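Possible regression after last week's pipeline update?

I re-ran a chain I had predicted before the update to compare outputs. Posting the input and the new output here so someone can diff against the archived version. Not blocking, just want to make sure nothing changed silently.
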Amino acid sequence: MAFTGKYEFESDENYDDFVKKIGLPADKIEMGRNCKIVTEVVQNGNDFTWTQHFPGGRTTTNSFTIDKEADMETMGGRKFKATVKMEGGKIVADFPNYHHTAEISGGKLVEISTSSGVVYKRTSKKIA
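New output (post-update):
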């Protein structure tokens, strides 16, 4: 499937402004700066398991089905419910404080999060 793979953080843009805008605590901001997150995606049709592995062993996993409400967790650990959609080949979800899209572009996972006009872009290269 289009999204299935393992992706390692390559670059980001506007991290500090974005995480401050969404209210991430200072300790989590420092922990996440230039963090070599590995994102593992398993796609089976409209069913996804999206796992982020952080240095130090912390892992966050969100499982969802396109167009069905699912229990989710933010990068700050906050739990919420969301309906993830597929729009033009992009995964689209509204998190509590931001709008998030993910797509495969040039073989890379490109994620864009927007909160009150502040745009954060994270690019990850495919490693498996």
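Follow-up from reviewer: compared with the archived run. The chain is about 10% helix and 55% strand. Marking as no regression found.
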